[in-house]
Amino acid sequence: MERTTFEVTGMACDGCEATVTEALEALDGVSSATANHETGEVRVAHDEAVVDEATIDGAIDDAGYEVLP
């Protein structure tokens, strides 16, 4: 199980955190996700054989937030 931390902009409240977490936990291969709007971080535990970082990045973008490089 891989644990990856993403720097994400645009999260401003607990609702934003919930939106990101729900979008990520809906992906096959993601076992858990935690978002923190105060630090701008999203931590994801995932099976890299099932879901890669680009797919996770895309899900965060699709939820309306931006992953910093």
Describe the structure.
The protein has 69 residues and is α+β, with helices and mostly antiparallel strands. Helices cover 32% and strands 33% of the residues. The chain has a 4-stranded antiparallel beta sheet with strand order 2-3-1-4. Strand 2 (30-36) and strand 3 form a beta hairpin. The longest helix has 12 residues, at 14-25. The radius of gyration is 11 Å and the shape is globular. The mean pLDDT is 97.
Keywords, please?
69 residues, alpha+beta, four-stranded antiparallel sheet, 2 helices, 4 strands, 33% strand
In short:
The chain is an alpha+beta fold. 32% of the residues lie in helices and 33% in strands.
Approximately how much helix is present in the residues? 25-40%
Average per-residue pLDDT, rounded, comes to: 97
Give the topology string: H per helix, E per strand. Answer: EHEEHE
- Could you tell me the number of beta strands? 4
Beta-strand content bin? 25-35%
**Structural class of the helices, strands and pairings?**
alpha+beta
Principal-axis shape equals globular
Low-pLDDT parts are none
Distance between the termini: 22 Å
Main-sheet strand order equals 2-3-1-4
Number of helices, where a helix is a run of at least 4 consecutive DSSP H or I residues: 2
Largest sheet: 4 strands, antiparallel
Q: What is the C-alpha radius of gyration, as a whole number of Å? A: 11 Å
Question: What is the topology?
Answer:
Elements (H helix, E strand, L loop, with lengths): L1 E8 L4 H12 L4 E7 L4 E6 L6 H10 L3 E2 L2
Antiparallel strand pairs: 1-3, 1-4, 2-3
